[in-house]
Predict the 3D structure of the following.
Amino acid sequence: MSKSIYSYIGDQWKSPTKEHKTLQKERVFHYRREDATTRVEKPTRIDRARALGYKAKQGYVMARTRIRRGGMRKHAITSGRRAKRTGIAKITMRKNLQMVAEERTAKKYPNLEILNSYWVAEDGRYKWYEIIMVDPNHPVIMADSKINWICSRAQKGRVHRGLTSSGKKSRG
């Protein structure tokens, strides 16, 4: 059985060649200079986006979001406790970083609903995720029987209720 073009693209992301690694370094170089959340015209990983529900049609919006890596950071307490009890290091959030990135993107684009997201890049300090968003009020989305479930009132704020794939993972 023959493989689709998307499976070849996915294989390239799973085991990158030397050319792909240099391209990824150049991308990260540009990503660092962008805003924390940037709207993008088309997905970087078309195979992953299509697998998660993206379609190249009106009403679908893509955004790339940068999130700082690692656990939570808390301010150092200046007085009155022994160092062991200050609780600065080794604090892990229950939410994963991908879910935090989705929530921040949802706050920036309040008229759109988050459909899903996927990993794009990372360096020592940041991770970048691309978020697939859908406009529930767009006529093309309302007319499409495969995605118009997102237009119902019950789907409002699905990212904040843990209904995306990364949210379901962190819910357990």
About this structure: The helical segments are 5-14, 18-32, 46-51, 97-108, 139-143, 165-171. Residues 18-32 form the longest helix (15 residues). The mean pLDDT is 92.
